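Researcher: For the record, we're logging two predictions in this thread. I'll number them. Prediction 1 follows.
Model: Prediction 1, sequence and structure:
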Amino acid sequence: MKKLCVVLSLLIVFALGSIAFTNIKLGGIIGKITPGDAASAVSLVAATDTLKAQISQGVFTFTNLKEGVYTVVVKANAPYKDAVIEKVAVKDSATTDLGEIKLQQ
């Protein structure tokens, strides 16, 4: 009887654990910086967390993001000015396209 209770308890714990992690859906953010060589870095800020993305021919991508609101910071090379895009929303399983980000001189 005691073994049966332990086995049933373990099955319930594993079942609940697997259900809890299946509901997490991740999104992303993409964008293109012009001119393509004007930026040296792109960062994503959420509260106290910061992520960095690689820039390839002006294009950057952030993946595996939880639903929420983020700030994108583009660090520009001289003579261009840095750009900050606030309140970028990411929804479940969706990729937010920022389109073209034109850096000003």
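Researcher: Logged. Prediction 2.
Model: Prediction 2, sequence and structure:
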Amino acid sequence: MRFEIMRLDEVDGTTVDSTVVDAASVNRIVQQAAAIGQRLWIRPAETTAS
């Protein structure tokens, strides 16, 4: 499963940037964000039907 992780602005909460990662990478990114107090929004990435 893939997830979209959006980094949020510290002041107003708007999305600064986003990336799509696999499930194995989510924990590492969350740990890094927690270490510096960064706000994230994580949601399942949209999949396209083929």
